[in-house]
């Protein structure tokens, strides 16, 4: 038993180091400037916040963060709103082809982004949404909506049938049942799916690169990827790392804040009884 515990502890330690090291190295690099970037040290001998100041002074990085926040928040709101209604239909209403429809919804999310990029670009241009936040919201729903529908449908199936029957006896219709009976019970599932959808939209790169053109319309992943130095042969690694830290810390905070709801939401419906 002692050797097993030691082996398990070493395994956990290795996983933690593997996961945390890139972010820790990004923090260390973001605090360096000049030739210090190419020195290997656990902590900078002369830490500096110049890179953090530069990313906001030399480009509209604050606006890029706001764009990502607006796009991700809108995507989460629309995904959860539509998914709750779809989950009720797929999880509580019996009709022919329900299982097939659910698999089709999940299958849509399996298409690679490149496969739908050209058609989606034509749609965005036809709607007049090019270089606007609306184009990102529309395109992000392609991969966030199927996931939220699938998870919430699984959760909806496990809610007690007696609650629905009692509400029907009182004269409540389907919409009232969803909004006033089921929705208050779906907090963990909504928190889990909403946060995962937010992270996916926040980190999305290909659609944001394709459907935005100007610096003021870009999101943070594209803004970081397009950072340039004093010449075309220079990459501002310090600023890139500083920007990466700035956009990653809020996500870590959200995950730590809602970690219990995430676990309970994703495991809801996994075990019956």
TrEMBL record:
Membrane association type: Multi-pass membrane protein
Residues annotated as domain ABC transmembrane type-1: 65-258
Transmembrane segments: 7-28, 65-88, 100-121, 133-156, 177-202, 237-258
Record's keyword terms, sorted: Cell membrane, Membrane, Transmembrane, Transmembrane helix, Transport
Lineage top rank: taxon: Bacteria
Keyword presence, Nuclease: no
Chief location of this protein within or outside the cell: membrane
Subcellular location: Cell membrane
Family stated for the protein in its record: Belongs to the binding-protein-dependent transport system permease family.
Listed name of the protein: Carbohydrate ABC transporter permease
